[in-house]
Amino acid sequence: MSTQHVLLGLLAAGPRHGYELKRAHDERLPRARPLAFGQVYATLARLHRDGLVTPAGQGREGGPDRTAYALTDDGRATLDVWLATVEPPMPYVASTLFAKVVVALLVADADQARAYLIAQRRAHTARLRELTAAKTTPGAHLDEVVAADFAIAHLDADLRWLHTTLDRVADWHREVHS
User: Fold this and answer.
1) For residue range 44-87, what is the model confidence (pLDDT) as tens digits?
2) How would you write 15-61 as a 3-class SS string?
């Protein structure tokens, strides 16, 4: 995820200070890793340095001074370019799950590797149930539903892969150890 582009997108709705940006990020991207305040302010400093945002006033709502930032024309142009750029499919498998399965096949016997895959499948299935319940809860916000749908699709793909790999464990293990 590009934190700077997400912050630019949140600022497209109007000036906000760091606390508001963090809160909006965490609300609008509910299944993403929450942003740390330090990350928000460091990113805002870089965006300001690069001329993509500009200070738009200060406020003090019962606490320390808070500087609001607004998107500049260059910031809007940068955001528009990012949004118009198609994300290429990932060229490499970069998954801890994949790496663990390969390592399990290298260092464990076929039964241990199979046991790991079954345990992982159980964990994925439990998470799938949690997400399905969260998105079907009456009054669920659309942000939460869309994020859950994204996570469910990825879990479903992992589950299909786990199932297929379980069918191949013995053959793969023989190939690795021959």
Assistant:
1) 999 999 999 999 877 666 666 678 999 999 999 999 999 888 77
2) CEEHHHHHHHHHHHCCCCCCCCHHHHHHHHHHHHHCCCEEEEEEECC
